[in-house]
Design brief:
The structure is a single chain. With 696 residues, the protein is of the alpha+beta class. Among the domains are: 96 residues, Penicillin-binding protein, N-terminal non-catalytic domain, head sub-domain (Arc Repressor Mutant, subunit A, Orthogonal Bundle); 352 residues, DD-peptidase/beta-lactamase superfamily (Beta-lactamase, 3-Layer(aba) Sandwich), CATH 3.40.710. The protein has 24 helices and 25 strands. The strands form 7 sheets. Strands 2, 3, 4, 5, 8, 20 and 21 form a 7-stranded mixed β-sheet that branches. A hairpin with a 6-residue loop joins strand 24 and strand 25. Helix 15 runs antiparallel to helix 24. The chain is elongated, with a radius of gyration of 39 Å.
Length: 696
Amino acid sequence: MTDQNTNASEQRKLRKSRYVRINVFFFLVFILFVALVVRLGVVQIVQGEEFSKEVSRTESDYARLPAPRGKMYDRYDRVVVDNKSVPAITYTVDKTTKTQDKIDTAKKLSQFISYEPEYLAEELKDRDIRDYWLAANPEEAKALLSEEELKLKPSETYKLQVERVSEKEIEAIKANQEEQELAYMYTRFSSGYQYEPQVVKSLNLTDKEVSSVAENLEQLPGVDVITDWDRENPYGEYLSTIFGGVTSPEQGILESRADYYKARGYARNERVGKSYLEYEYEDYLNPRKAKVEYVSDKSGNIVTQKVVDEGQRGYDLKLSFDMELQIEVEKIVEEELRKASASHHLMDRAFVVMMDPYQGDVLSMVGKQLNPKDRSGDMLDFAYGTFATQYEAGSTVKGATVLSGYQHGLPINKPYRDRTLNFKGTPPKSSYKTLGPMNDLSALKLSSNVYMFFVALHIAGVDYVPNGPLNASTEDFQTLRNYFAQFGLGVPTGVDLPQESSGLMSTPDNPGKLLDISIGQFDTYTPLQLAQYVSVIANGGSRVQPRIVTSIHAPVDEAELGPIVVDKAPNVLNRVNNTPEEIERVQQGFKQVVSPSGTGKSIIYDVAGKTGTSQTLYYGPKREYWGRETNNLNFVGYYPSGNPEISFSVVVPWASNDKTSINKDITNRIVEAYIKLQKKYVTTTEIEYTKQEEEE
């Protein structure tokens, strides 16, 4: 009985324990369920909006599309540099683009476009070929690394792979036109940032290629045909070198100025000015590119795209050039050079610079050179030689010599006798003939070398003693050069063009070279420096900075100049330290040069100026003749002599002798061209004014 009671009691305890465990289990389930409900509530109610945004999250990226550069106008508002629309084939990388996608698209695109072998040889570098080979051969590329090297950072492994691509593989691609084209396309595909369209081909793009690609865009992911722009010169080759060039989309920014462009937000494929005005005024000519927004989901797929900024072409430049005058002067120089060079086998170039002596506006800048390979063929444009090359100026500098003497205390009308001067250790010094008694005016009129020698000796503080020493010091050379620098000789003119030469001032090997400097036989100057120098005399003593750009304008839709953004006022660099009376004295001398008994007597117009024949040694392109004695034939002057409107320099290097008058012939013809054009402009203005009065 007792045992039965005991078993019953144990069974009751067991059932009770089981009920407790079950209740605890249900309680735990209930707690977990409540926690789940609470969590769901928090997710849906408290954080629901946040998670919804995460699910629908998108990112915006921006790309910039080509816009045209600013235009250029001449002084009479004629367009001289314009833009024209051209088609271009582009490729755009997005976030989902893989290396294999580029390879596949390049293979498809190669069916529709091709490149000239010469172009590929020039543009495709060995590094580009290595990158392409690694992309096109991923398994072989992996085999270039050891197991240990595969554990390195991707940048380190890729560097090793690039170095280990064999020369055999590179040469195999170079020998295969199709592989070269694929390598170039892959390089273009990979040359920019995401969403930045990279130009794959625009140069020599045919209509057939454009239409073929446009018709097959569905099978060419990332490829597009867009409207790009190119530079156009309405006046052809006239002044084209001075206007400068622009890089192609394939070339992009100049590596030599990469930091400059990057600091200003340029893309690597952006077209930039690469020479002269295009280069010098890049900050203004560069357009504000159109801006496109690409919206993509979290997987990188583009959801929408829209233009958020239409962009704007660059600012327009108004130039100092008179294009009609430029064309006429170029024709004159070419005709006279071709005629004279027939009997002067080393003469191959000629230069003319015409400018406003008061404003500094360069009206015409002409340089012509015979083609070294075919002297009877088309001439080369050498306009940049007017400020980038230098020559002995001869007697044209004698106005500066006389004015330098005045500054150093030489009195006006100081007499010297022209005869042969003899110095110890220095070859005899003389004029082209013995001229006898001279003063400053007759010395300029008849171009007395000896008079200028005495001026140089005066500056050096040396008294002439026949057969005595010429004790000129280094300081004396610098003193004379400093005087000349006031006129722009031997120093930069300040013209707004890159790569200007300041002339060449060599180290003298004997004291007699001081006398040579005084007659333009030792130091060399650019044609532009000579034009600036004679402008100082023409305007009464101010050295004015030559300017090519006179104002910068905001772009407008119409084919006309917009509002002025930058007005580049004339800039006087310095005044020479001469009195008005002294400058007028030299002006009188320059006027006498073109009198019936002066060295410039063949000048038929009301010109004041100075002839210059410099005996020099040839150092042109015909190296076999280097060191041959030749003559530079020059002229500097201004018109009209009483109230100058233009100043100019004419420089013709390396005549076989001085028996040609090419420098004076050019002078007569360019002044005549200027006079005729001024009459035309005045007549046109009067007609327009009359019409306006009639309308009113």
